[in-house]
């Protein structure tokens, strides 16, 4: 019989601290759309805002929440806690969007919201009824990785916009910093827990976060240098 591997208290503290830090930084990201929805409620209109990012985020949070539960993966409960909070925020945002959207968009968003919950229910049924143990974790884990990686499309679009416009106007510094800190916290959490379904996507997120911060520093400094250039005055 192989004796159980003992884990030092320091190791446990470090892994849990990384997970708690990830939860805190993720909370900053979850509350970041509040000013947008304050404007929507104040104007009683969704204007030109898109509700799709919140639909995608809701599905992502639900899948990752399911993965973090003990019935799917052991020892990564902090993945479940952060995504349960995220799912609540995204549900509120989607509901507000539906309330204040025009009728065609209201119907479309309602249909997408129903589809999200149907997909989530299907994932639960398949993982509980048809799979068990390691296969269940693999199934939900790959879904969570695919979902997280698809969420990285948004930062890529923003980085492309920054490069094209040579301006950081559409890439808020604190949002980029929070994304980086959250990703690196959960990357460390996944590494310490030896869970590649956690550290692989967050490792990618960390790399993208570093690139975002580099772009911000580069184009912010460049815009300041340009603003210091003397104006050319033509004399007729």
Can you describe this structure?
This protein is mostly helical and 236 residues long. The chain has one domain. Helix content is 79%, strand content 0%. The longest helix is centred in the last third of the chain and has 33 residues, at 196-228. It is globular. It holds the Pfam family MtN3_slv. Belongs to the SWEET sugar transporter family. This is Bidirectional sugar transporter SWEET. It is a multi-pass membrane protein.
**How far apart are the first and last residues' alpha carbons, in Å?**
95 Å
| Order of H and E elements | HHHHHHHHH
What percentage of the residues does DSSP assign to strands (E)? under 5%
Report mean pLDDT, rounded to a whole number.
Answer: 88
Q: State the shape.
A: globular
What is the structural class? mainly alpha
Proportion of helical residues = over 70%
Q: What's the total helix number?
A: 9
Question: Segments where pLDDT lies below 50 for 5+ residues?
Answer: 1-5, 231-236
Radius of gyration: 21 Å
The total beta strand count reads 0
Number of domains: 1
Organism: Elaeis guineensis var. tenera (Oil palm)
Keywords: Cell membrane, Membrane, Repeat, Sugar transport, Transmembrane, Transmembrane helix, Transport
Membrane topology: Multi-pass membrane protein
GO molecular function, one term: sugar transmembrane transporter activity
């Amino acid at each position: 019989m192989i004796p159980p591997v003992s884990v030092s208290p320091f190791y446990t503290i470090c892994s849990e601290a990384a997970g708690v830090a990830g939860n805190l930084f993720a909370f900053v990201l979850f509350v970041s759309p509040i000013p947008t929805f304050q404007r929507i409620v104040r104007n009683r209109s969704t204007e030109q805002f898109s509700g799709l990012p919140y639909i995608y985020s809701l599905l992502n949070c639900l899948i990752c929440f399911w993965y973090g539960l003990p019935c799917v993966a052991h020892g990564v409960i902090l993945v479940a806690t952060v995504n349960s909070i995220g799912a609540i925020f995204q549900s509120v945002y989607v509901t507000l969007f539906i309330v204040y959207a025009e009728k065609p968009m209201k119907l479309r968003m309602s249909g997408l919201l129903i589809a999200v919950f149907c997909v989530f229910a299907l994932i639960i049924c398949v993982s509980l009824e048809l799979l068990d143990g390691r296969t269940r974790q693999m199934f939900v884990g790959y879904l969570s990785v695919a979902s997280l990686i698809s969420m990285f499309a948004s930062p890529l679009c923003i980085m492309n916009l920054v490069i094209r416009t040579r301006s950081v106007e559409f890439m808020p510094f604190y949002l980029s910093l929070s994304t980086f800190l959250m990703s690196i916290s959960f990357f460390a959490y996944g590494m310490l827990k030896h869970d590649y379904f956690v550290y692989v996507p967050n490792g990618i997120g960390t790399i993208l976060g570093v690139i975002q911060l580099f772009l911000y520093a580069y184009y912010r400094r460049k815009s300041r240098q340009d603003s210091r250039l003397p104006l050319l005055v033509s004399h007729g």
